[in-house]
User: Fold this.
Amino acid sequence: MIVRNTRLLAECQSIIDEAGLPAHTVQFGAKGCITWAPQQIRNYRDYKATDFDLAFAQWIHGINRGVLLPPGLDEQWLISMMHTEADAMFYAEVFSDFVASLTR
Assistant:
């Protein structure tokens, strides 16, 4: 689970880096998220500087394509025993599609 999540986060971070977006990935074991801020979040002030509009747009984009994450502005997910490699990479594909629509 953790290895699969690491691959997913690496793919998402690669998409972010290639597009030059002010975002980054965060991993804690089998959990992960994309945060729409250029720097790591260290405190509440950093959190308030997050681009909440982009976070919401990404969440809606995912829902409209079958990626159902809990509502929240940090787009957290949990890779469980039930998730296949294809499931994880589907999230990366949907995220890539979202980034492509942002950068057109």
About this structure: The beta strands are 24-28, 31-35, 77-78. The first strand starts at residue 24 and ends at 28.
